[in-house]
Amino acid sequence: MPRLPFALAIVAAAVYLLGLSGAWGTVTSIPTAGRSIFRLTSARLDTATAAPDLVGGTSDGRVSAIKSTGELRWDVQTGGFAFDVTAGNLDADTADEVVAACADGKIYAIDNDGRVLWTHDLGIVAVAVAIARLDGVSPVVVAGGAGRDLVAIPASGPPASATLGLGRYVSLLRSGNFDADTADEVLALSLVYSPPGGAYTLELVDGPALDLAIPATAGVQIVSDYLGLMPNGSAPQTMTGQGFDVATEDTDGDGSDEMVTARGRYAVAAPLTQLISFAPGSYLPTTLDFFYRVPQLAVGDFDAGSPGLETFIVNGPDAVLYDAGGAILGQVRGTQGFSDVTAVTVGGSTAAYLASAPNGDDTLYRVTFEPGWEGSFAALARTGRVAAIGSTIGDITDSLELAAGGSQLAGQPGPFPYGVFYQVIDSPSRAAAIANSVNAVSTYRGLFPTYTNLLYFATVGLLEPPGNRPDGKPWPLDPRYRFQLAHADVMSLAQQLEVTGTPFVLQVGHGNSPFLPLQSALDVLDAAPTACLGFSTAEDLVDLTPNSTRNLSYYIDNFMVPLLDAAATRGKMFIMEEKGTFWLTAPAEPTVRAALFGGSYKHVIVPSVEDSNSRSPDLNRAARFALWMNGDVERWASRMIADNFSFNRAWDWEYPFSGHAHLRYNVTDLALGASVFMNQMGQTDWTHAFTTVGREAVVPFLRLLGKGIAAPPTREQMRGVSPVVLTLTSPTSRYVAESQNGHRLNGFGGDLAPYALGQLDAFWGMAPTRSTDLSSYLWQRRVQYGNHLPATPFGFVAALGGATPALDDAPWSSLWNTDGDTIFRDGVAVPLDQARVAITADLVAGAAAMPIEVTGEVFAQVAEIAPGQYVVYLVDPAWQDPSDREVTITPRAGGVWTVADRIAGRILADGVMTHAVTVPAGAFRIIELTASTLDE
After folding, report:
1. Cα–Cα nearest to 43, from 57, 56, 53
2. What is the rounded distance in angstroms from the CA atom of residue 365 to the CA atom of residue 378?
3. Of 62, 61, 42, 64, which Cα lies nearest the Cα of 53?
4. Does the structure show a pLDDT above 50 at 19?
5. What is the tens place of the pLDDT at every residue in 569-596?
6. DSSP-assigned states of every residue in 279-315
7. Which residues of 305-329 are buried (b: 16+ CB within 10 A; e: fewer)?
8. pLDDT given at position 4
9. Adjacent-strand bridge partners of 727
């Protein structure tokens, strides 16, 4: 599958350049000097110029002011990601100040020249901020976040002048005059669970003492959803939203501000009154990239020909412009999503500015709404860093297409199972959809017919009422689904997959509860003895509470074990897709380890992941790898899903519409020995045609693996594994509860103490990782998100739950232990700061003993494929801010070496001792080293 034909590429480039020049179209790309802007507002920082500046919070924790022409005005490095950025006049001059609420817990006030005026520490992640004149005269800064309180800070800085306990995660604050008096009020939206776990509570704060004009007891709630049109024009369907955006404007000229959401405009009162409903936009998902997105909106006089104020909503890649009455003036689906939108007025003309796409993009976008703006939006081309990354991935894909293949790299034997599709059929009315699994597998076979070392399969859930547990209590049901299939339906569907020769894995459960009766799952093996490759379960909880309906041990003993036995007898696999810290925590529980990892099922259990809404994907990878290296399992799986781009559902960016992060994720796992691959990331649309994500992630990876240019190493080949290993035993109740990594935003109870493994709850998303946390130096985690790809300056560090490593067979000689709270060596507790120093010394010493030295901020892994012959995998580890990585490779055996690029299929250097390579931003390299001569 070649890239865009040259002629079309020329046309696309011409369209883009015309858009920039203003000769055609109404979308202009604005460079950001390399900054990926996630939160966006405007501010008048230079009163000598007519155009306000754009001010944004970057993915790497800066607040940046950028001129409308794209020149950088200033940067302020904060201590954490800016969840919210606003601007207003805090003093008596004519320029604005900027205020940011940041993940380090601090509120930053910044003057128009980029100087920090003051900070105020909320003590835990700061999420929302607003500037208001609550007394009608003097501005104050109102802020809140995970601490569940609101504080009012005078314009001159701390101390706070008032505090109000809301008791819920404060997700959004907006100022406005909602009652037509002389003073502002502040609208607050707060949560208990990250969506879709519950509604937002709306409260209105009035007066300098933060009195509640609308308290929680008034029962004013609002749900994060929007209306979407179905493709056949049928009635609008409510689409479940995730995060929530609100604008406050006087939209009808009556002197009072209204609240504008993705559903329409509201008068802010109790009860909440909807004044205008927006017509349903066409938000139909066509791939998994569209499921979790946060509608962002701006209100302004965007269309001079339409009376009143318009509302512009950007929902991932979907843009809709509404008139003052809620009718659609224009709508279009673009080629990428955006992380924020703001309205900017200059000389009576208002434009919408879009923040960067959440994929390493370093561009802003200006949209004006002349006729034809939809065409310009739809034709928007990639620019800057993300365009360069796309070109790099295209070059890799082309090189792999031209590669001859044939000679398989020495490693684990295939065929390697590769999951290409996932679906749930929960009622007879959906039974015909089984054709989607058949067609998906058939499509991959047709596109890649020569890759005999790959086994394509679908994961299928067939939902029959599971009935009662052996103790007579009902099994809990997943509330997302209907359980309406009869036993005959399940058998019929399984037989269809068998007859069509469609390999599949039957998903049998989720969250410690079955999807169908135990006997039905066993009967599927009889109905599809060849096609059924085994079973899977997902998102199980480490719940060992006695008598709990979701007790993990009960689920294992009474549902999983009989299936594991059947799978072992028939040579099938049981894939466990678990999230949070499951793969470290569950094996540390003696009953779980005894049931699953006693040796009987090592050829059956395949550890996999569900790393959505997670703060610890690095830890979960290290634990799966450790189980494999320790001989507890014979295979482990790489599973990349679209919602890996979420750290909690109130902040969701599942629409990067580029494949580089997904590709690097799979390559990283392959280099660590993963030999089962499952991708559920929007790689194909509903017709099974590859999307941009598929072309940039799946196609090159399948060529890489299918042609044998890369192969999962065996345990015996691994040469980049640190001799330092972390073990978890006797986990504390605090650690187990927090490590579930759930959706509960309201869990903060005032415990800010540092722990060996901490900050894992949902409200910690994006917080800076503490330097004393083991993750900060074992896997180089810096922030509680985006740590899917670890840097490995000392080799890859494994984490093993509940066992003493098998030192005779594993590469580990330096053992450190934790219970989640404390760090131990040889049974003696070591203070966290001292442990960091001692463990780092062990890491450095261990790295010095490895056969290949790799320097550079990069993920690296080494496989020895023959004496004097090594393959080195190098991956850019950045999730949100990919960049070029300069790397040097030095064999410690000395002598001279031949250095080759396995992807390009060419020799880079011959007769060298050290070689320098560049790993391009968002990409990877596979380097082969062969000894020409070795030092004696």
Report:
1. 53
2. 13
3. 42
4. no
5. 999 999 999 999 999 999 999 999 999 9
6. PPB----SSGGGSSB--EEEEE---TTSSS-EEEEEE
7. ebeebbbbbbbbbbbbbbbbeeeeb
8. 37
9. 800, 817
Average pLDDT over residues 700-713: 96
Are β-strands 814-818 and 721-728 bridged in parallel, bridged antiparallel, or unpaired? parallel
Torsion, Cα of 700, 702, 705, 709 (10° steps): -40
Q: Tokens at residue 78, please? A: 């904060």
**Angstrom distance (rounded) from CA 464 to CA 433:** 16
| Model pLDDT for residues 53-63, shown as the tens digit of each residue | 999 999 999 99
281 and 314 Cβ atoms separated by less than 8 Å: no
The amino acid that residue 446 corresponds to is G
pLDDT, tens digit (0-9, with 9 covering 90-100), for 127-136:
999 999 999 9
Tokens of 220: 């004013």
CA distances from 658 to 389, 683, 935 (A): 9, 10, 46
Q: What is the DSSP letter of 646?
A: E
Task: Classify strands 676-680 and 416-425 as parallel, antiparallel or unpaired.
Answer: parallel
Candidates 281, 362, 275; CA nearest to 314 is: 281
Residue 20 in this model has a pLDDT that exceeds 70? no
Rg (CA), the chain: 28
Full 3-state SS string of 743-801 = CECCCCCCCCCCCCCCCCCHHHCCCECCCCCHHHHHCCCCECCCCCCCCCECEEEEEEE
Residues across the chain? 936
Average pLDDT, integer, range 324-348: 94
By percentage, how much of the chain surpasses pLDDT 70?
Answer: 96
Q: Indicate if the pLDDT at residue 741 is higher than 80.
A: no
**CA 314/CA 337 separation, integer angstroms:** 8
Q: Which residues contact 409 (CB under 8 A, 6 or more apart)?
A: 708, 709, 710, 711, 865, 871, 902
- pLDDT band at residue 309, thresholds of 50, 70 and 90? very high
**What secondary structure does DSSP assign to 326-358, as a single string?**
S-EEEEEE-SS--S-EEEEEETTEEEEEEPPPT
- Could you give the CA distance from residue 562 to residue 576 in angstroms, rounded to a whole number? 15
The backbone torsions φ and ψ at residue 289, rounded to the nearest 5 degrees and listed phi first, read -65, -15
Q: Going by C-beta distance under 8 Å and a sequence separation of 6 or more, which residues neighbour residue 245? A: 172, 261, 262, 294, 295, 296, 297
C-alpha dihedral (733, 580, 608, 448), degrees to nearest 10: 180
Confidence of residue 241 (pLDDT cuts 50, 70, 90): low
- Is the pLDDT score of 511 beyond 90? yes
Residue range 67-73: mean pLDDT, rounded: 91
